[in-house]
Amino acid sequence: MEKSTEEHLDDGAIVDGSVRRKSVVSMKRNTTGEIHNPLTGIPKDRLLHDVEKFAHDSELTDALPYLFKGALAAQSPEHYDSIIDLDEDDREVLRVERDHRWRHPKALYLTIILNSISAAIQGWDQTGSNGANLSFPQAFGIGMALKEVTVPVYSAKNAPTVIRGALVMSWQLFVAFGIMLGFSANLVVVNTGDIAWRLQLGSAFIPAVPLIIGIFFAPESPRWLIKKGRHRAAYQALLRLRNSPLQAARDLYLIHAQIQVEDAMIEAREVAKTDNMVTRFIELFTIPRVRRATQASGVIMTAQQMCGINIIAFYSSTIFREAGASNIVALLVSWGFGMTMFIFAFPALYTIDTWGRRTLLIATFPFMCLTLLGTGFSFYIPESSAAHLGLIALFISLFVAFYSPGEGPCAFVYSAEVFPLSHREIGMSWAVATNNFWAAVLGLTFPRILQQFTPTGSFGFYAGLNLVALSWIFCFMPETKQRSLEELDYVFAVPTTTHAKFQLTQVLPWWVGRYILMQKDRAEPKLYHFETEDE
Fold first, then answer.
1. If you write DSSP's letter for every residue of 308-336 in order, what string do you get?
2. pLDDT grade, residue 518 (50/70/90)?
């Protein structure tokens, strides 16, 4: 790719050949999708000089040998065997990281466990409300709302690139687990009379206790510490989260390098003097690279509500009662829905980092549309027939089975990883707010939709929204699997029109030829060209 010293910051590229200088040396607008490591092209002697200066400025001279080797490994992550400065032990550490994706320190898994408990609380809260829907309307005559969560961004910052998707998706896995536990709690207290709804809503306090205790033992996000200039603390955190000092030093310097690039971008845009939360929020919609991440995360977060999952999560008991089930049967069938969601989330632990987020979504949305249609049409079966309730339960279970490895884990994983470091917290907050806004709209409007459209019309309406969401995902969502959080800057430097045009004119014809016309020799077109794949 031709390089240039032209400034094209308005085009959204956050790239740099040097982390030592404060000025920006950027490339032309990224219309080809070519991906570059921020350390690529720096001569060895200058890189080592920069590392030494970083170590002295950060009071990390005791870690200088690891920082030297780590920077070289970060510069050529796929060619560590040819780096003469690494000894055999160093190469073995990097080899194990490549070949044994799940071999990581206990501290990393502790953070994921704590995040998973947070997720379980979220799911439990939702199903407590689901069960309470059968009794508290009589007491108060009201709907319900959601609580906001931002836990996935913490997982994304701490997780290694190779399994980031699987670790961050533990959020959705344990939301599903919490939903199952919540339905179980609903069943336990269903016969407690007038206080049943109070117990159903309050039972989510149970998993909150170990979370409150455990969070004091979890390491802080290294990226957040580096942004605050606390490099020693960041290095200590990475030593707990990685298997060796070499890997900790490598990730420390790579994160530092990207933050330097982003600082240079901010300085070049002359916004450093007004850099605050309001400024960063405005830049979610004004800086092209960040705007594309905002748009993509908005698509997937909105699609999670458009697909209709929270109809089931919030109102499954109500839906089954509409189908003629008793309160006990409605809760039992809802419990089965929760169990299905939990079990079918497990395949995504593997596929989310191999198939990719985008592929999972495109593969599952058509089936969610069909199963919602099946659910709606099943209401035409007379209630006197056993097939009436049976087919409704079957199609809802199939819907959940397709949702759980697709839109379920991908929404929060994707949104937690797409924003640059400078805008990650505010970006994820906006993405979650978008999700919760549409969840609130759904939660408040579905009873009215159910009344006006009838169950068949309601499910048909959401089946149509699945097709709309699928078209958005196809056109406006780039793939992010197995790309470092830093490399994603270059993915989102590709203009939206370029990405959408490529999908419609290149990928769609290829897909039709490959899977409908069965032209198996057709090569898949690629928009993004990674250095490590070209070499």
1. THHHHHHHHHHHHHHTT--HHHHHHHHHH
2. confident
Let me know: does 443 contact 340? Beta carbons within 8 Å.
Answer: no
**Among 104-108, 231-235, 273-277, 298-302, which stretch is predicted with the lowest mean pLDDT?**
273-277
Q: What is the amino acid identity at position 390?
A: G
For domain 106-218+285-491, give its CATH number from 1.20.1250.20, 1.10.3330.10, 3.30.750.24, 3.20.20.80: 1.20.1250.20
CB-based burial of residue 331 (10 Å sphere; 0-12 exposed, 13-18 middle, 19+ buried)?
buried
**Residue 179 burial (CB < 10 Å; 0-12/13-18/19+)?**
buried
Domain boundaries, the chain: 9-100+244-275, 106-218+285-491, 496-534
Rounded to the nearest 5 degrees, what angle is found at the Cα of 149, between the Cα atoms of 462 and 431?
60
The Cα–Cα gap between 203 and 511 comes to 48
| Structure tokens, 474 | 């196809």
When pLDDT is cut at 50, 70 and 90, the band that residue 369 belongs to is very high
Q: Average the pLDDT over each of 86-95, 102-111, 185-194, 253-262 and give the range with the smallest value.
A: 185-194
Q: What is the DSSP string of 226-260?
A: HHTT-HHHHHHHHHHHSSSHHHHHHHHHHHHHHHH
Q: Check residue 154 and give its pLDDT.
A: 65
pTM for this prediction: 0.66
**Rounded Cα–Cα distance for residues 192 and 173 (Å):** 30
- Alpha helix (H) ranges present in 82-169? 88-99, 106-132, 136-140, 151-158, 164-168
